[in-house]
Amino acid sequence: MNILPTRVSTRIRRGTVAVVVALVAVLGITNFPASAISTPESSLTSSWLAAQVGPTGEVNISGATQSIVTQTMYVAQGLAATGEQRDALDRAMSYLSLNSSIEEWVTNDGSGGTVAPPGADLPERLAALILLVNTTRGNPRAFGTPAVDLVARAQAMYGQVVPGFYGYQEPWSSIQDQSLMVIALQAVGATPPTAAIDWLVDQQCVGGSNPQSSLGGWQAFRASNGNVIQDCDAPDPINYVGADTNSTAFAVQALQLFGRTAPVASAVTFLQSAQATSGSGAGGFPWFTGGDVDANSTALVLQAITAMGQAPSSWSVGGADPLDALEAFQLSSPASDAGAFFASWNPGVPDLLASYQGVWGLTLTAFPFPVLPDRTVVIEPVAVPAFTG
Questions:
Q1: What are the residue ranges spanned by the domains of the chain?
Q2: 3-state SS, one letter per residue, for the chain
Q3: pLDDT at 53 over 80
């Protein structure tokens, strides 16, 4: 915290004491506006997210299936996108800085059916924490008490199992994992090797005998037979396989950040083919082409659209654009739920996962989020009339 000095100018004249206070310190913390685009809709979601944060920083929503640490990370990631509700965000970051919270979030506890062994660091979670700490003006090289070097842990994962990849290759999340990791490292000045970016490019569904419906997109992971990467599957919203909008959105953001625009250009065709063109979800995106439009997928694609320097309005179809479709998932009543997003499979009920990712799309901000302004004590000018005595 930077405290600006108070400057007091005093003149003494014969018969007159003129006290001119140039600046009087008003001791209070200003809740600075967001670094990202702030709208009434995003502010409403920020307020709902902030209301979930307890006095000591943890989030424990009744009926939630995620752990307290996971819920707190979700809320903090949502608040970091808007830059609003800084008191709640600071409390959440304080809770997350506990060593027990860091380890619970970052390491695999063995209960999720992952390829990574128990106790191994999970790349997507580690990258998400690095990005969050960086956005909130923390030090990802010395975070928490005792201090943990999150960046060094991330770098130690490179080539851990296969060349060019961070950590273990999960069949359901490898594209997201690698994308967030290279974005996070670049954001904190630890530029990843070119081979890590090449790995993402090579995973795109292009050429060969890849199905037409997958071309230009990314699926969660393409395994290899020797040195040959297997073809992508056609998008299948029933069995959750094939190229999908979520993986593609993460890859687009990463490759755009590194100036690899050729793969990004071909991804546009895939995303446009997945976009809903009619009905109540017009303009929005499903996870897999042909599936139901959902808030999370629409928000992630909005981030990709933003990363490409395009406006949501340029993606308008069926009388609506992706931002219109996303806002349709935001609750306005009752007051206690206002601002939350609901999941497509559970209409009208606040959903934490949909809410914290939904606000990413509302702010039209791609990864990495801008570093939030410092919360300094503000010195405001106050006029004090001169008097004679």
A1: 1-32+374-389, 33-372
A2: CCECCCCCEEEEECCEEEEECCCEEEEEECCCCCCCCCCHHHHHHHHHHHHCECCCCCECCCCCCCCHHHHHHHHHHHHHHHCCCHHHHHHHHHHHCEHHHHHHHHECCCCCCCCCCCCCECHHHHHHHHHHHHHCCCCCCCECECCECHHHHHHHCECCCCCCCECCCCCCCHHHHHHHHHHHHHHCCCCCCHHHHHHHHHCCCCCCCCCHHHCCCECCCCCEECCEECCCCCCECCCCECCEHHHHHHHHHHHHHCCCHHHHHHHHHHHHHHCCCCCCCCCCCECCCCCCECHHHHHHHHHHHHHCCCCHHHHCECCECHHHHHHCCECCCCCCCCCCEECCCCCCCECHHHHHHHHHHHCCCCCCCCCCCCCCEEEECCCCCCEEC
A3: yes
Question: What pTM value is reported for the model?
Answer: 0.88
Find the mean pLDDT for residues 48-62. 98
CATH architecture of 33-372: Alpha/alpha barrel (1.50)
Which residue has tokens 């929503």? 61
Nearest to 284 by CA among 341, 335, 350: 341
